[in-house]
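Priority: low. Protein: Outer membrane protein TolC. Input follows.
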Amino acid sequence: MGFPFIRSTLAPRAGQPRPIALQALALATLLAFAPPTFAEAPPPGADVASIRAWLLANNPDLQAMQAEAEAAQARIYPAGALPDPMAGVELQEIDPDRPTLLPNNVGSTTYSLKQPIPLWGKRGLAREIAGQQANAAQLEREATALNLLAQAEQAYVRYWHARESVLVVDRLIELLGQVEEVARVRYSLGVAAQQDSIRAQVARTTMQRERIERLAVRREAAAMLNAVLGRPADAPLAEPASEPVLGLPAGSLAHALAGLENAQHPALQARLAVAAAADTAAQLQRRQRFPDITLGVGVMQRDDRVDSLEVMLEVEIPLQQRARREREREAVLMGDAARSRVQAMRNDLQGQLGQAWAQADSARDQRQLIEQTLIPQSQANFESALASYRVGDVDFGTLLEALEAWQGADLSRVDVRRDEFLGAAAVRAIVGSVE
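Result:
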């Protein structure tokens, strides 16, 4: 339904709405009936799930590999299709004094149609090879997705860690301010030296410099995360809503190693698919020992009538035996190479798995020790030192050491939590977990 604007060269009469008012009313009516606009999707970064979802949906490397996998699927049917037939026209008895290419003006014209036909199951083997190669391409895409997910999770862990470490430094700066205030009060009462307040100021300035460095690390982590996601380096990221949810998969290290031995990782399965395609290619090359045929039919035209028909049978003669044997040898060696790469990749993945599992296990044990023992002890030590300093039982250096030990333990907790998450992300990529 349209809303035409009415233009008039006459001045509006009193009491009538002016043209500008009519236009405004029409615009308001259009906006009222316009379809609602949807808000843009929030940027990733609030949690690990948002990072995974963005990566799987938008990463250009994965999109390219998915297109290549679909292209490999599209090659399966043509691989086993019959070759295109060949049509031919043969002009005979052309008068050299009056050469022409018109069929009615030559002695005879033969129209032929030939169809090459591969025999001995060669078309089926070719289609099987294409299917195995397509399967390998899809598995390679899945393996790349696992690796990119691990990189994205690790980049997100560093992004979260940079934020958490800044928060710990901020708490330490605030506590140093409180300690400085206590020292100032004691100095005003004449029971402490002015040096105590100055030392607190120096320590606070040092931590502010530390805060600037950690903010720079946070910007670097954000740029790295955006790069893995396939976004511009300065693209906005949401603030982490909570601690990442990243844990080791269920089961033991021995169970995970057994999964690799059974080739459960998509990269191993892709190598096995390549080896299977090479074996099938070797079988196809052996079938090349047997000749293919070409069937054809023809019609001979003389003047403007059909003079005769012909049927043709052509047989391929496999004379190039050395070339055929070398192609067979090539296919066999490619299969051997693919199987050797499977074993080499399995050994490499097992080594990476053991290292990442040990990192995650060790970091988890350290975190539990810090959370359950070190932090409560260092906090109690600081509170005791603060109370003793208020009454003059300990000097200011002891108080600063207690404060730095307490907050240092909190920073260590954040650091080992980061290492625990990094190890878990690496393990999840190797065992094939995308949950």
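Residues 1-17, 24-39 have pLDDT under 50 and may be disordered. The domain at 52-83+124-288+323-431 is CATH 1.20.1600.10 (Outer membrane efflux proteins (OEP)).
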